[in-house]
Fold this sequence. Notes:
It is built from eight helices and eleven strands. Helix 1 crosses helix 3.
Amino acid sequence: PEVEVTAVSKEEGVTMKATCVVKPDVVVKDYKGIKASKKVEPVTDEEVNAEIERMRNRNARTITVEDRAAENGDIVNFDFEGFVDDKPFEGGKAEHYSLTLGSGQFIPGFEEQIVGHKTGDSFDVNVTFPEDYHAEELKGKPAVFKCKLHEITAKELPELDDEFVKDVSEFDTLDELKADIRKKLETSKENAANTAFENALIDGIIANMEGEIPEEMFNARADEMVQDFEYRLSSQGMSMDVYMQYTGMNRDAVRDSFKEQATRQVKVALALEKIVQNEGITVSDEELDAEAARLAEQYKGQNITAEQIKNAMGEQLKNDLAQKKAVELIKETAVEE
């Protein structure tokens, strides 16, 4: 709170005024019978085949190519040195560099000029740096790269037959594998459709909510999200300072990137809390115990017990479970278009 002392005296003591932000009391109208569309996309043969191709690629072996020139998709090992105005430039030289042709890793036109060359070839690659290239001194400049091709390797995919299926899965035939992939893709698309349907309903709730929400609530949630993000970065061995250096962002910019998501989360929480209140939704001790046990199972490697979770998060768990029940109520009464 912001505290203002308005009067001080020996006889009357101290009189002060405290101003603080309070949680708003929102109104949510017409949260039953919300209309939303739910469309489950069918699984196509092309999607099933694409997944099988990914399995083949994961199980491919690499072979050395000696009887032909390099092609798109090959991995080449080569030396290169770049020159602009007949002078070498910083960062333009490497030895035994490994590059997958067609990956777009190098500037436009570079990889295409390696295609067609054989192992042992020495050749020039002539390119022009893009106008938006990150190095100011190279933007729009023509360059020559002198290259030496040492090795060409390629992926050799396994034969697509029942023997392959037995090697990479618990199934015996290709038809069985395809059926399993189709079923998993159908489940994935069903889940995606359910998530989209639920999000549409939540958007409807927010649209039907009335109330003045203090900006401080949005800012506080954004700050929490930044702290969570910083913790995730540290768990991956990166500090926030290093992240900001890589991205060119300052802390305010990072916070602003979470603001839209934070605003939605605050509105959703307030709306669901109001629906819980309106409907008299409660959470039993048995439900709370079951949720704590479920979370303890997730963290069993860290030796965290259900009782510890309840002690630390009891009220939060109750609120979360009650809000989940509110969402289920909204879904049960929704109208699919």
